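tokens incoming
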């Protein structure tokens, strides 16, 4: 029986890992084909960006709710439902007759894909002994980070081979069928939680609060973050979100006092360890966002052609996977606090190498490896183990969903800040070029951080080779300054991760000495 259970868990973890990888790839893959999709439906880039924004909103709203449902009704059942929804959403996206239909399909996809990581992680916390959890969680976290890094490049390869954006979504179908069939056959159902009624009022308050907050954050202007907070499409939504969150906390306290089953336990929110874990989740979102900007750095600062950029990113992708495995092993052996400290140290060094030492392939590779390892160590194992230590049995799913939500907020907020650095860099670039070569050499009205290729095309059309070199030098130097600001900010986040890990270690040491 013990051997049978061991085999069953191996199958379960393998299937969860494949599911996490499939779902994690999706947003990175679609970003590559965004222009092609917009052109096929004849829509503007700002309208087309909603195919990514809506997916992000759907994940943010659904993950804490799905986490709770997995605790309540069993994780095998929810995993299969999630895969079915993701597969149906992928199929509907691929055959969308118009853009509105595509947006609805993307929302279905997000509800299906958002909960896979939470269900897999909560299954591990519930089914594996504590000394085996870190390694398994590290695998899931590694797949999540690995998928986010390689997604854009894999999307470019698929688009280049097939010539059609529809295949970016059709490739999910056979994977989803495989996961559904083997999920039925190989995953043992975890024991369902309480039979008490679902907290529908709390669920509605949580969903509306998240939707309002995420919509407000999404509308922040990257060129003037602080100023845009007061805008009509930001401030009211942030205010409504905060009010609804306060109402949610009050409601959940009342439900728990009555002996009900809250969507998010108030007793969990009060725990200092869980609060610290949520702070680390927010920081990890900013950490991951810094990694996601590295492909743009390769093209815009190191001047690597887009068709070769994927090769340069291989060390980053591989090292994030290695870091996740290492983080899992270290969490099992040394505990989550020391693992988090190591992640912060490696992350600080890796991010600081980019602005101060990177000047070619070897220095870039070293910085990428360290940044990737730092990210991989942090994602998955140590934070999820901390959640396992905070939450009672039957609460792991909702607790992990809350952590994932906070990380998603970080992944939405920090790219806006980082994009502000890029926008500022392009403004300075326009001034530098026009001051040196006049106003008529390049048309910056069609060029921005989101359309860098247009600027390069204009430069390549200049017949004077020496002039081309001079302009590219200005482009590289100016944009490097903007990216340097981003990397330094990311290193500050890594330093905060380090300090938080030190606090956890000191807290644990003090608790041990007081026993």
């Amino acid at each position: 029986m013990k051997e049978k259970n061991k085999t069953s868990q191996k199958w379960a973890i393998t299937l969860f890992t494949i599911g996490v990888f499939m779902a994690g790839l999706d947003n990175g893959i679609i970003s590559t084909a965004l222009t092609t999709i917009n052109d096929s439906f004849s829509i503007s880039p700002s309208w087309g960006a909603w195919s990514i924004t809506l997916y992000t909103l759907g994940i943010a709203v659904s993950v804490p709710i799905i986490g709770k449902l997995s605790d309540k009704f069993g994780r095998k059942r929810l995993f299969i439902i999630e895969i079915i929804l993701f597969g149906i959403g992928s199929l509907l996206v691929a055959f969308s007759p118009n853009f509105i239909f595509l947006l609805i399909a993307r929302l279905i996809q997000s509800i299906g894909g958002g909960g896979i990581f939470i269900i897999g992680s909560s299954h591990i916390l519930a089914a594996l002994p504590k000394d085996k959890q870190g390694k398994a969680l590290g695998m899931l976290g590694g797949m999540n980070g690995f998928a986010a890094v390689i997604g854009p490049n894999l999307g470019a390869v698929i688009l280049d081979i097939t010539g059609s954006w529809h295949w970016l979504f059709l490739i999910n179908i056979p994977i989803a069928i495989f996961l559904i069939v083997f999920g039925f056959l190989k995953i043992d159902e975890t024991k369902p939680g309480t039979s008490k009624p679902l907290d529908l009022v709390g669920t509605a308050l949580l969903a509306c609060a998240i939707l309002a907050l995420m919509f407000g954050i999404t509308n922040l202007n990257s060129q003037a973050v602080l100023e845009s907070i007061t805008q009509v499409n930001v401030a009211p939504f942030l205010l409504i979100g905060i009010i609804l969150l306060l109402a949610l906390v009050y409601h959940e306290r009342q439900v728990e006092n009555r002996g009900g089953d809250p969507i998010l336990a108030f007793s969990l929110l009060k725990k200092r360890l869980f609060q610290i874990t949520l702070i680390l989740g927010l920081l990890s979102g900013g950490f991951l966002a810094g990694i996601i900007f590295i492909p743009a750095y390769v093209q815009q600062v190191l001047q690597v052609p887009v068709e070769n950029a994927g090769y340069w990113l291989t060390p980053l992708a591989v090292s994030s996977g290695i870091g996740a495995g290492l983080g899992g092993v270290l969490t099992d052996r040394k505990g989550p606090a020391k693992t988090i400290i190591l992640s912060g140290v490696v992350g600080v060094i890796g991010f600081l190498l980019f602005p101060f030492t990177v000047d070619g392939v070897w220095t870039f590779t070293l910085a990428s490896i360290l940044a990737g390892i730092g990210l991989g160590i942090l994602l998955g194992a140590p934070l999820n183990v901390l959640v396992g230590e905070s939450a009672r049995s039957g609460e792991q799913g909702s607790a992990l969903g809350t952590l994932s939500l906070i990380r998603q907020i970080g992944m939405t907020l920090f790219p806006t800040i980082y994009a502000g650095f890029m926008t500022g860099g392009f403004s300075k670039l326009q001034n530098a070029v026009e001051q040196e070569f006049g106003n008529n050499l390049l048309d910056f009205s069609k060029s921005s951080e989101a359309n860098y290729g247009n600027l390069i095309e204009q430069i390549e059309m200049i017949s004077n080779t020496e002039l081309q070199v001079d302009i590219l030098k200005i482009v590289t130097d100016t944009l490097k300054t903007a990216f340097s600001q981003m990397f330094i900010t990311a290193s500050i986040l890594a330093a905060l991760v380090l300090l938080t890990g030190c606090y956890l270690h000191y807290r644990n040491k003090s608790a041990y000495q007081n026993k």
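note: The chain has three domains: 1-192, 199-262, 280-515.
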